[in-house]
Design goal:
It is a single chain. This protein has 192 residues and is an alpha/beta fold. It has a six-stranded parallel beta sheet, with helices on both faces. Helix 3 packs parallel to helix 4 and helix 4 runs parallel beside helix 5. The longest helix has 18 residues. It is globular, with a radius of gyration of 15 Å. 42% of the residues are buried.
Length: 192
């Protein structure tokens, strides 16, 4: 089975993906921004291999996270899931754009790089403006995935729009199926 690292797996899509991947026998390493969230995530994802702590709004912590991740060796897949939505421009830039970029550059190169995108990238702009948006950062993820797919042809690099799935952000009434989305990304087999 695959060894997978998921940023932002203390709740939401990251945690749902981690549960699904552990259920399918994968070795999953979780990530949370602080110790309290990390311990809660380990309780919520029984069978997870380990937990790494780093606040992705701090570049020094991002660099230390890359070192910690490299201590695990080469991952089969890294899922860059961590993200923030309604917050300061600095948080948007650091967490949604810089953290995945820095981690990708400093970590051992995995077989797969998966960046959580959003259909909202369609209204994003590649330039960083005084009033940056979540949409801009999701466009940045798409651009990074496309650039890496060209630069590193031996790595399966893509941005995945998870759709509207039932999370704290998406709400309980969200209609999409996470298992199908993971299957579409090639991470698990999905039975209807």
């Amino acid at each position: 089975m695959a060894k997978i690292f998921i940023t932002g797996s203390a709740d939401g899509l990251g945690q749902l993906a981690a549960k699904e991947l552990v259920k399918h026998g994968h070795e999953v390493v979780l990530h949370a921004r602080n110790e309290k969230r990390g311990q809660e995530a380990l309780k919520q994802v029984p069978g997870a291999k380990d937990m790494m702590i780093a606040d992705l709004s701090d570049i020094d912590e991002i660099k230390v996270l890359a070192e910690k991740a490299n201590a695990f060796g080469v991952f089969d897949a890294v899922i860059h899931n961590a993200g923030v939505y309604q917050t300061s421009a600095r948080q948007l830039l650091y967490v949604n754009t810089l953290a995945p970029y820095i981690l990708t550059g400093l970590m051992h190169r995995p077989k797969r790089l998966i960046y959580l995108g959003s259909g909202m990238h369609l209204s994003g702009h590649p330039q960083w403006t005084e009033k940056p948006s979540y949409s801009n950062t999701k466009l940045h993820m798409l651009m990074l995935a496309k650039a890496l797919a060209r630069k590193w042809p031996e790595v399966y690099a893509n941005a995945v729009d998870p759709g509207w799935v039932p999370t704290r952000m998406g709400g309980a009434g969200a209609p999409d199926d996470l298992g199908k989305r993971l299957s579409d990304a090639g991470l698990v087999s999905h039975k209807q």
